[in-house]
Structures are given as structure tokens and as C-alpha cells.
């Protein structure tokens, strides 16, 4: 009997015509690696998409949560997986930030992955306490520019929220201190108590205190107003035309995954997230559905890496 090693079997599979490989895919359960714990936004999003993807592919889709090292553990596992489409990986804005913030990583976010599609996007929200003297962005900017030192609460250093706050400090010319907290509840509590003048968080994370009236959203960070907070102006609306921060979670495969497999998955993800019922479920999580082509996702990743590199440099943040 002739026994093929895993490497030999993979080489034989890759030698098949592209159409044959796509028709044979998937050959078993599909694993999606997520660099965040169960119950988080990325996890919930991929479980919604994975449920529908499983029905379309006729195979089980398994979510493999591997939190730690700022998403590095998951990214490394995805980068070294076989490029056959049986293992996929969720990357996020955090991976683009890490590429600019760290001198070296155990993976290359551009070279080691093949983009499939974005899945969701989310803006950040600037929040003030319900009883705060800052009732608008104009109030915040005026105070920060007139010698009144502001405090801005965010989660940990190097997070999207933290760097977005640092960028606002520099871009708007504010006298401000960005104070990082360990957890989102601590950030929100600091703003409610008045320990911080402003909190930077995602709508999804702050939804409860916004809807409960404890914190007031005075601006969002996107290029345009969010469908989730249409009455809240953007920082661009308020006189900062070059300022925009939008986070994303996207589906990738290991580099060298056959293009027909990438295209098949891209089509499925796009169709899944265009379904009205699915869009409603995603919006209920506090994020917005977003799909794009593999080429557009590759460009978004590269552009974000360059953007965060500029922000880190302008804010005077030392690389780690």
C-alpha cells in the first residue's frame, strides 16, 4: 500500500486544475481562527456568518478562539496553516496597528494571508457624562485649545481606541492626556464619574450606557455618520476633515490558498451579509455589515497599516 504524507497529499492537491480544486472544496470541516475570546464582537460576528456558511458549504464551520498577544497567537496559527481553505482566520484593525506598532511580529499581515472579504465595520464614539459641561464636540475642542487640559479615557495602550484618541489630541491641537484603562467597563465608569472628560469606545461596547442615558455621544470617528447613530456628527463634520477612524473585522485565508476557493468564499460571505435578516442581526450587535472584493480588502489592510504608522509617528509613540 502507498501512503502519502500530509505534505505530499497537499502538493498533489495543489497540482490539480483550479476548477477541480474549487469543486472539491471543502473536503471536511472548515475552521475559522479568531484572536479574541468567546462572546466578543469578533466571535459573535464570525459565528453568525459561520452558521450560514456551513449551510452553503455543506460542512461544519468550527470557530477556534485563540486570544492573546494582541491577536498574534491566532494570526501565527492562521499564517502557518495549510493553504487549502480548510483553515481561515479573522484579522482586524488591531493587526494593521500591530504591523506599525511593533518592530517585529511572528507573522506578516500582508504576505502571509490571502484576503477573502471584510465582514463588519465600526466607528468609535466620543462620549461625555450626561451631566458634563461638554455637551458637544465644539465644547471639547474649545476647552482643549484654550488651556483647559482634558483627560481622554481609552482601553489599553496601542488599541484602536487609544491611538484614535492620541490622533485627536495631535490633529486638533489639544492640551490633553490620554489615560489607558485595562477594561472597557473601567473606561465607561471613568467617564460617568467625571474622572475622565471623554471616553473613546465603540458603539457596541458603550450601547448600554448610551441608551441608558449615563453617557452622551457627541461625535463619531467615521468618514460619514453611522447608521447606528445617524443624529451624531462625525469629527469631520466638526472641522477635522482629515480625521477618520473606522475599525473592521475581515476573513482571510493562508497565503497561496487557491484563488477559486477565495472567490467561492467571497461570494458566499457577500451573499450572506446582503440578506436582510442577517443585516438586521449584525446591526443588532452594534456594528455595520461590510463586504468587499479580495483586492479591495488587501488595499484596505495596506492603507490602514500606512495610516497607523503615520499616527504613531505624529503622536510620538515609541515602537515596541
From TrEMBL:
Record-linked InterPro entries: BUG, Bug_dom1
Organismal lineage: Bacteria, Pseudomonadati, Pseudomonadota, Alphaproteobacteria, Acetobacterales
Family: Belongs to the UPF0065 (bug) family.
Identification of the protein by name: Tripartite tricarboxylate transporter substrate binding protein
UniProt KW Phosphoprotein keyword: no
Keywords: Signal
Signal peptide start and end residues: 1-24
Organism from which the protein derives: Falsiroseomonas algicola
Pfam family, one: TctC
Amino acid at each position: 500500500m502507498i501512503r502519502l504524507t500530509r505534505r505530499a497529499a497537499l502538493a498533489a492537491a495543489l497540482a490539480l486544475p483550479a476548477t477541480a480544486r474549487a469543486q472539491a472544496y471543502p473536503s471536511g470541516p472548515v475552521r475559522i481562527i479568531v484572536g479574541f475570546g468567546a462572546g466578543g464582537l469578533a466571535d459573535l460576528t464570525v459565528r453568525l456568518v459561520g452558521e450560514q456558511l456551513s449551510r452553503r458549504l455543506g460542512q461544519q464551520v468550527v470557530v477556534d478562539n485563540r486570544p492573546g498577544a494582541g491577536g498574534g497567537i491566532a494570526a501565527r496559527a492562521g499564517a502557518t496553516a495549510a493553504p487549502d481553505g480548510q483553515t481561515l482566520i479573522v484579522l482586524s484593525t488591531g493587526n494593521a496597528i500591530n504591523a506599525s506598532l511593533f518592530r517585529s511580529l511572528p507573522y506578516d499581515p500582508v504576505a502571509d494571508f490571502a484576503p477573502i472579504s471584510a465582514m463588519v465595520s465600526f466607528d468609535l464614539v466620543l462620549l461625555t457624562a450626561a451631566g458634563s459641561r461638554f455637551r458637544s464636540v465644539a465644547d471639547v475642542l474649545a476647552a482643549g485649545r484654550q488651556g483647559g487640559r482634558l483627560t481622554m479615557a481609552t482601553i489599553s495602550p496601542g488599541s484602536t481606541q487609544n491611538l484614535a484618541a492620541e490622533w485627536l489630541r495631535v490633529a486638533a491641537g489639544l492640551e490633553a492626556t490620554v489615560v489607558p484603562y485595562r477594561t472597557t467597563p473601567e473606561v465607561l465608569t471613568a467617564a460617568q464619574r467625571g474622572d475622565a472628560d471623554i471616553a473613546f469606545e465603540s458603539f457596541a461596547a458603550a450601547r448600554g450606557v448610551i441608551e441608558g442615558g449615563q453617557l452622551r455621544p457627541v461625535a463619531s470617528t467615521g468618514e460619514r455618520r453611522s447608521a447606528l447613530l445617524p443624529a451624531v456628527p462625525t469629527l469631520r463634520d466638526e472641522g477635522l476633515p482629515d480625521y477618520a477612524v473606522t475599525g473592521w473585522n475581515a476573513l482571510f485565508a493562508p497565503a497561496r490558498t487557491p484563488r477559486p476557493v477565495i472567490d467561492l468564499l467571497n461570494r458566499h460571505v457577500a451573499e450572506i451579509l446582503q440578506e436582510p435578516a442577517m443585516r438586521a442581526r449584525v446591526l443588532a450587535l452594534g456594528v455595520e455589515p461590510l463586504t468587499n472584493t479580495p483586492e479591495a480588502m488587501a488595499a484596505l489592510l495596506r492603507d490602514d497599516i500606512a495610516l497607523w504608522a503615520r499616527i504613531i509617528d505624529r503622536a510620538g509613540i515609541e515602537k515596541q
